[in-house]
Amino acid sequence: MFFSCEAQMKSEAKNEKTIEYIKKSKLNKHDVAYFASGCFWCVEAIYESIPGVKESISGYSGGHSEFVNYPLSNTGATGHAEAVAIYYDADKVTFKELVDIYFASQNIEQVNGQGPDRGSQYRSILFYANDEEQKVINEAIKKLTAQGYDVAAEVQEFSEFFVGEDYHQDYKKNNPNHPYIKNVSNTRYERFKKKYDQMKSN
Predict the structure, then answer these.
(1) Element (H, E) at 200
(2) What confidence score (pLDDT) does residue 200 get?
(3) If residue 152 lies in a helix (H) or strand (E), which one and from where to where?
(4) Pairwise CA distance, residues 156 & 180, whole Å
(5) What's residue 6's pLDDT?
(6) CA–CA separation, 159 and 128 (whole Å)
(7) 61 neighbors 40 (Cβ within 8 angstroms)
(8) Are 104 and 50 in contact (CB under 8 A)?
(9) What is the model's pTM?
(10) CATH number of the domain bearing residue 20
(11) 132-149: average pLDDT
(12) If you compute the radius of gyration of the chain from its CA atoms, what whole number of angstroms results?
């Protein structure tokens, strides 16, 4: 059976609870990285399993529209991709490690999507906030290219992140029996964990 992130949710919801949570938890005191890599339900859960990551928030970034929500994102017309804001403790996990995890958790060569989720709203994008982050990203891509990969991910200077609707946050954790989670997210997560264990042992 074919499962995709887009097919599962058509309703629109608000994001006030998530924004309030970010403020109350003082997440902004931590370093933050922004990545897009297919369905944010999958990516959020992957990064939240990493020691040193304080929180991963689902949302949208990388486009031209001044407003975006889930239904609009799915049209592809906003230019935004489903993305995650990863709040992390730089003393426990580095930006370079987050980039390595990014590539280890996806099909590096898939253009405009990951797995069954296809379209510009699911494209892979690495965002950088400064020259050092850009250098880390470019070096990682150079290394993968030398290994024979045709890297599909875009590299963009970070501009703005739009917090996703409340019901998208911790979706894998809160909806373990959802067909998409069971058939797509869990498979992607387990595949990543095997690679991550190998990364740690090297």
Answers:
(1) helix 186-201
(2) 79
(3) none
(4) 29
(5) 53
(6) 9
(7) no
(8) no
(9) 0.92
(10) 3.30.1060.10
(11) 98
(12) 16
Contact 164, 16 (CB under 8 A): no
Picking from 56, 52, 40, 36, the residue whose alpha carbon sits closest to that of residue 6 is 40
Closest CA to 151 of 139, 135, 160, 161: 139
Tell me what pLDDT residue 12 has. Answer: 47
Give the residue among 37, 199, 198, 11 at the shortest CA–CA distance from 121. 37
CB burial of 74-92 (b: ≥16 within 10 Å; e: otherwise) equals bebebebbbbbbbbbeeee
Catalytic positions are 39
Structure tokens that stand for 122 in this block = 């699911």
3-state secondary structure of 157: strand
In the predicted model, is pLDDT for residue 184 greater than 80? yes
Identify the weakest region by mean pLDDT among 1-5, 22-26, 150-154, 175-179.
1-5
Q: Which domain holds residue 170?
A: 5-201
Give how many domains the chain has, as a whole number: 1
Whether 124 and 152 have beta carbons less than 8 Å apart is answered as yes
